[in-house]
Amino acid sequence: MIFPCKFILFLPILLIIIFQNKIQGRTLLLNNNNNNNNNNYKKLQRPFNNTVSAVFVFGDSTVDSGNNNYINTIAKCDFPPYGRDFANHVPTGRFTNGRLVTDYLASYVGIKDFVPPYLDPSLSLDELMTGVSFASGSSGFDPLTAQFVDVITMEKQLEYFKEYKRKLESSIGKENTKLLISKAAFVISAGTNDFAVNYYNTPFRRQKYYNVSQYQQFLMQMVQQFIQGLMSEGARVIGVAGVPPFGCLPIVITIDSGDALQPRRCIESYSAVAREYNSLLQHLLKTMEIHGTKLFYVNIYDPINDMIQNPIKYGFSEVTMGCCGSGLIEASILCNPKSIVCNNPSNHMFWDAVHPSQATYYTVFQAIRPSIDFAINQL
Hints:
By secondary structure, the protein is α/β, with parallel strands linked by helices. Helix content is about 45%, strand content about 5%.
């Protein structure tokens, strides 16, 4: 088979990740330049009278708070410069320089400042009871996406949640566990890797799904199965994030656009696919909702797209390159202690060539806050 040029360009990165993986055995505080955002955040905080019992998170690197630290994968970021703007400048395993949207969410609803990773063996019962993240960087709804670098599939994340339930039941009883879960907020954020890494930059899925519409339908089946799994375990309020305009990710522009250097432009055809996927997702959530369960579509596409189209409005001076290294291709091990880092990450929309900066996550949190308020009021 003759692979397209873009796959040949991506292949060395993929092989480095897989090869090193086989050898092994298979982020609160904004920086000083972002104090205005931090102060605004404090003003946004409001109590919910303990309506929300816990926050449970599933998905990929956009919501992984460190689970990949505890598995044998090359998809890690538990080293500087990751976490440079987190509390005490600690690299926690979050794929950014600071906090994630889910950290802001947990703090906003009055539960705790950060959502910890479930696989952290040091977590106390109190930490477990108020919510954890099961997410894994580089994962996706398509099981094959996670298999590329041996990270935690969505199916395994659900199994971990079932394990979590058993732990709680043995500590606080079945009825208390059932009540806690029924009053919890569930967040799912995945899908970007399925397109940007899997479908467009490897040949495997395109051999079976000859056009992207077929692949989108396959992903909808996977999303449906996962949500049904959560519902069967007692989840009653579930927010599912759409995908961003992934044609604008710095690494995607570098690999797939044909304009790796200048001018760097988003790939509109990819972002169009993201919009189609989000439309399908919204329809699916409407059809799946049953009495006693609320499913919410979390629109991250529009706020991220607006940041890209109107960067000055949000205080960004760079939206096509990451802050770490060249900003063109670095992520995970390629963004490391030896990498040059930009002086002011809050001016950059992206921290590395894949992941948003803390400033971007905070802006997304602000944008989806009305949806959060509405969802929480359903509990």
